[in-house]
Amino acid sequence: MNYQYILGGEFLACSFAFVYVLYTLVEKKKPKEIASSSTYLKTNGPKNGICSSLLQEAAGGTDIIIVGAGVAGSALAYTLGKDGRRVHVIERDLSEPDRIVGELLQPGGYLKLLELGLEDCVDGIDAQRVFGYALYKDGKNIKLSYPLENFNVDVSGRSFHNGRFIKKMREKASYLPNVKLEQGTVTSLVEKNGSIVGVNYKNKSGQEFTEKAPLTIVCDGCFSNLRSSLCKPKVEVPSYFVGLVLENCNLPYANHGHVILGDPSPILFYPISSTEIRCFVDVPTGRKLPSIGNGEMTHFLKIVIAPQIPPELYNSFIAAVDKGNIRSMPNRSMPASPYLTPGALMMGDAFNMRHPLTGGGMTVALSDIALLRNLLKPLHNLHDASALCKYLESFYTFRKSTSSTINTLAGLLYTICIASPDPARKEMREACFNYLSLGGVFSDEPIALLAGLNSSSSTLLYHFIAVAAYGVGRLMMPFPSPKRIWIAARLLSVALGIIFPIIKAEGIWQMLFPSTVPALLCTPYARE
Ligand SMILES: Cc1cc2nc3c(=O)[nH]c(=O)nc-3n(C[C@H](O)[C@H](O)[C@H](O)COP(=O)(O)OP(=O)(O)OC[C@H]3O[C@@H](n4cnc5c(N)ncnc54)[C@H](O)[C@@H]3O)c2cc1C
């Protein structure tokens, strides 16, 4: 019966989607970002000769300046330092960060740690292995394991205290003799004739300095002050995460993330050490974030959220609320829309953000770093500005194949997971849960996408269409009534309304047809 739902509904959904895709592609003949990047280079960028001489002037003793030593900056410093580059990292605060972000690294991110030689940074910090997710809805639950059969035994997700992980990566980078890690705050980028030639910064004691280098990489995180000169930021805040730490309890499925499809939106649990479990309660922006200070938050967590918590975690949840260590963070999403700026690049959250429901941020950052390392490898002389510009342009294009899939999945899942009184949206959420419950390829491939083990955008689109089709099929069986046909039509329009804005923001052309984008074809890396 389940397969009949899929087949019947799939035909309808595919026809609908095909017409829509065709229309959108005809409308959008050129990829927007690359078009604007190239325009920028042509109109604002320096001529090659000028660019080279400017950047040579900026030479000094540093090849690369990195702004910020969070997840992206510290991993990047180690990676480029290991390749022999002279790296100067400027980080606002070198003490161990105490944050509620970046605590679950997906297996795809762990593979990138291995590729970069940073895997030992998850050792000795009481990191926990993660083997998949458990999904809860209306009292039912399913276990979705990462498909790790074809990998070495050490490959899995890892969850930890973010600050401990960053501290290990900073230490590892600073052991390299050609990496200088300095505490200081970058106040601005130094620009000369359209090129970035360095940064102005204040050191720990407030003295002002200018540092110059042929390449500056901005990794100053989600609250970036520097990104506005390197991209056109379109930041959205779809929700907030309210974070708590549960103690003295075990997760129903050990070493698994737990997602409760709750009301108003998802609730997450995963281990961050052998004795602590992180809980995130998502509060959509449309709803006022209850105040922590005046007790509204405690009331909200106890009255609205606690009844939805699995019984095994209930007492510890209440104890954590009573303990009062409640913190919140805005969940931002921002598609990558860089201006191709000679001498500068962005990485990590400064550059591109997605909803953290799927824990994809660190995987995207680490995979960008691995890509950049490979791209820059043949370029021994970073002072060759015109070559460097070409490499940077290819970076922005190449990265799409992984980042767009992770970003799109995060946007899709978050939108589907929000509770709604709309019958079509309810049906979509139910269809998603039931589709994943089918097991086999219906859960393995979606969970591989979530894990960062598969970055195929076509696989993602296929499963999204299949979920919508499954939902339509369920409504048509056993007999379609006019009301059910109406809900099915609404479900399809909801599905399209969810996916197209997300894909559009990612760049339809680059995401679906990356091999047709010119920057891909003109770098030595592409030829290799
Ligand atoms: C609530 C929440 C939960 C999340 N959970 C996960 C998860 O489980 N898994 C996952 O993969 N991702 C998660 N993410 C996303 C993840 O945290 C980010 O993708 C990741 O931290 C990005 O790393 P980054 O280096 O860009 O930024 P950060 O790690 O924030 O580092 C930025 C660094 O720059 C420094 N800095 C800032 N300004 C300056 C300046 N002017 N001068 C010098 N230094 C400066 C800061 O001090 C900081 O050290 C989550 C995000 C949120 C909001």
TrEMBL record:
Q: What is its EC number?
A: 1.14.14.17
The organism's superkingdom is given as Eukaryota
Gene Ontology molecular function: any one: squalene monooxygenase activity
Q: Gene3D superfamilies per the record?
A: FAD/NAD(P)-binding domain
Where in or outside the cell is it found? Membrane
Mention any one GO cellular component term assigned to this protein in its UniProt record: endoplasmic reticulum
Protein's pathway: Terpene metabolism; lanosterol biosynthesis; lanosterol from farnesyl diphosphate: step 2/3
Provide the alphabetized UniProt keywords. FAD, Flavoprotein, Membrane, Oxidoreductase, Transmembrane, Transmembrane helix
InterPro entries named in the record? FAD/NAD-bd_sf, Squalene_epoxidase, Squalene_monox
Required co-factors: FAD
Write out the transmembrane intervals: 6-26, 485-503
Supply one GO BP term: sterol biosynthetic process
The way this protein sits in the membrane is described as:
Multi-pass membrane protein
Annotated catalysed reactions: squalene + reduced [NADPH--hemoprotein reductase] + O2 = (S)-2,3-epoxysqualene + oxidized [NADPH--hemoprotein reductase] + H2O + H(+)
Q: Where is the Squalene epoxidase domain?
A: 212-486
Q: Which SUPFAM superfamilies match?
A: FAD/NAD(P)-binding domain
* Family statement drawn from the similarity comment of this UniProt entry: Belongs to the squalene monooxygenase family.
Which purpose does this protein serve, as stated in its record? Catalyzes the stereospecific oxidation of squalene to (S)-2,3-epoxysqualene, and is considered to be a rate-limiting enzyme in steroid biosynthesis.
Matching PANTHER family = SQUALENE MONOOXYGENASE
According to UniProt, the name of this protein is Squalene monooxygenase
The protein's organism comes out as Medicago truncatula
